[in-house]
């Protein structure tokens, strides 16, 4: 995959969006996000048919905008609707199994150490997300806050492999994550809870250029 696709990687589920998630995604796309991950988790998250129908609507919005539509964790849903890819964590199915199931799709893996990073590469991951870079309230079960040092080490070791930072990244701190060598930033709250998600996305896009 093209590393630039990770530049402004918006992640959201219905619990993260005060407005409708469709409206929030459309505004974020207007602002210039480069990739979207549907992460339907947390209090009040949709399940079953409702989750699938929302995923299909969001996928259509991404298709029309020409940006990749990624599903978090739910490999079966991703395959069922023909998503562009999946993102899995260390606690989810092994990347090697997902790689086989998702054939030509994009497989993203969360990594927190160089060992996990090297294993993800061996398993055929197309990109990795590493963090939490800063403290975050969006995800309660995170590893300790990592800062940007691991991104630097990962890029020193594998300069070409696509790496995106995640966790508590704001408009004020996105520049530091890019300066550390990341190909992009993954953002939930700074876009989904912004008064103007399009403006927040546009600011981040400029920061990442
Ligand atoms: N969802 C994510 N997306 C990324 C991405 F690289 F896309 F930015 N990196 C990391 C995560 C965290 O993934 P995971 O560890 O499975 O936890 P959760 O399923 O709660 O999100
Ligand atoms: Mg997961």
From TrEMBL:
<feature type="binding site">
    <location>
        <position position="110"/>
    </location>
    <ligand>
        <name>4-amino-2-methyl-5-(diphosphooxymethyl)pyrimidine</name>
    </ligand>
</feature>
<keyword id="KW-0479">Metal-binding</keyword>
<feature type="binding site">
    <location>
        <position position="139"/>
    </location>
    <ligand>
        <name>4-amino-2-methyl-5-(diphosphooxymethyl)pyrimidine</name>
    </ligand>
</feature>
<keyword id="KW-0808">Transferase</keyword>
<dbReference type="GO" id="GO:0009229">
    <property type="term" value="P:thiamine diphosphate biosynthetic process"/>
</dbReference>
<keyword id="KW-0460">Magnesium</keyword>
<feature type="binding site">
    <location>
        <position position="92"/>
    </location>
    <ligand>
        <name>Mg(2+)</name>
    </ligand>
</feature>
<feature type="binding site">
    <location>
        <position position="168"/>
    </location>
    <ligand>
        <name>2-[(2R,5Z)-2-carboxy-4-methylthiazol-5(2H)-ylidene]ethyl phosphate</name>
    </ligand>
</feature>
<dbReference type="GO" id="GO:0000287">
    <property type="term" value="F:magnesium ion binding"/>
</dbReference>
<dbReference type="InterPro" id="IPR022998">
    <property type="entry name" value="ThiamineP_synth_TenI"/>
</dbReference>
<dbReference type="Pfam" id="PF02581">
    <property type="entry name" value="TMP-TENI"/>
</dbReference>
<feature type="domain" description="Thiamine phosphate synthase/TenI">
    <location>
        <begin position="8"/>
        <end position="191"/>
    </location>
</feature>
<feature type="binding site">
    <location>
        <begin position="37"/>
        <end position="41"/>
    </location>
    <ligand>
        <name>4-amino-2-methyl-5-(diphosphooxymethyl)pyrimidine</name>
    </ligand>
</feature>
<dbReference type="GO" id="GO:0004789">
    <property type="term" value="F:thiamine-phosphate diphosphorylase activity"/>
</dbReference>
<dbReference type="InterPro" id="IPR013785">
    <property type="entry name" value="Aldolase_TIM"/>
</dbReference>
<feature type="binding site">
    <location>
        <begin position="136"/>
        <end position="138"/>
    </location>
    <ligand>
        <name>2-[(2R,5Z)-2-carboxy-4-methylthiazol-5(2H)-ylidene]ethyl phosphate</name>
    </ligand>
</feature>
<keyword id="KW-0784">Thiamine biosynthesis</keyword>
<dbReference type="InterPro" id="IPR034291">
    <property type="entry name" value="TMP_synthase"/>
</dbReference>
<protein>
    <recommendedName>
        <fullName>Thiamine-phosphate synthase</fullName>
        <ecNumber>2.5.1.3</ecNumber>
    </recommendedName>
</protein>
<comment type="pathway">
    <text>Cofactor biosynthesis; thiamine diphosphate biosynthesis; thiamine phosphate from 4-amino-2-methyl-5-diphosphomethylpyrimidine and 4-methyl-5-(2-phosphoethyl)-thiazole: step 1/1.</text>
</comment>
<feature type="binding site">
    <location>
        <position position="73"/>
    </location>
    <ligand>
        <name>Mg(2+)</name>
    </ligand>
</feature>
<dbReference type="InterPro" id="IPR036206">
    <property type="entry name" value="ThiamineP_synth_sf"/>
</dbReference>
<comment type="similarity">
    <text>Belongs to the thiamine-phosphate synthase family.</text>
</comment>
<dbReference type="GO" id="GO:0005737">
    <property type="term" value="C:cytoplasm"/>
</dbReference>
<feature type="binding site">
    <location>
        <position position="72"/>
    </location>
    <ligand>
        <name>4-amino-2-methyl-5-(diphosphooxymethyl)pyrimidine</name>
    </ligand>
</feature>
<feature type="binding site">
    <location>
        <begin position="188"/>
        <end position="189"/>
    </location>
    <ligand>
        <name>2-[(2R,5Z)-2-carboxy-4-methylthiazol-5(2H)-ylidene]ethyl phosphate</name>
    </ligand>
</feature>
<comment type="function">
    <text>Condenses 4-methyl-5-(beta-hydroxyethyl)thiazole monophosphate (THZ-P) and 2-methyl-4-amino-5-hydroxymethyl pyrimidine pyrophosphate (HMP-PP) to form thiamine monophosphate (TMP).</text>
</comment>
<dbReference type="GO" id="GO:0009228">
    <property type="term" value="P:thiamine biosynthetic process"/>
</dbReference>
